[in-house]
Amino acid sequence: MFPYAYIKNNLGFSEYETAQIRHFINTILSEISKLILIGLFFGLQGKLAIFAAAAVLLCVLRSFTGGLHMEHYLTCLITSFVIFFTAIDILLPIQLSKQVQLPVLAACILINLRFAPVVSRHRPVPGKARIRKSRIESLVLIALFSLFLYTLPSNQYISVGFWIILLQSAQLAAAYYGKRRSENEISSAEVDDSSL
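User: That's the sequence. What structure does it adopt?
Assistant: Structure tokens below.
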């Protein structure tokens, strides 16, 4: 509590600006703690390097596109763990040919171009410029990864990257339709209320 009071009282920040700083710091600490906890799990399996590669790719892609947003720390931790566990422990042993992976990545690009970004309901709705920027960033990232997949020899890092992109794209589509459904339910409730 003291650092925030100091920031507000001595550095001239408003209550709103102090709240933004607090939210930013809490978010960063929350994300770091989740990565450490999940990293410990994979470290005990001897898969820390693969997890680190998957985490970097997922964090960058999610920063461009957003996706599912959980309300509580524990549900967010569990969801993040499930994504990494699915990619690393379940899907990574499945070897697909490049002839299969490249069209799947092309489909992921289309999904990202259609649905990105899906932001938390606690954040402002992005404007057209931000939406366009997010979509271009995700296109460039997945296109670069596709180039690496095509030119580099197959390895675990490329394979886990493929599965992370596929899982992120799937949860992005799920988040988009979930958000639309929620918005439609709210709109329907407002119409019902106004007709009373």
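The longest helix spans residues 156-194.
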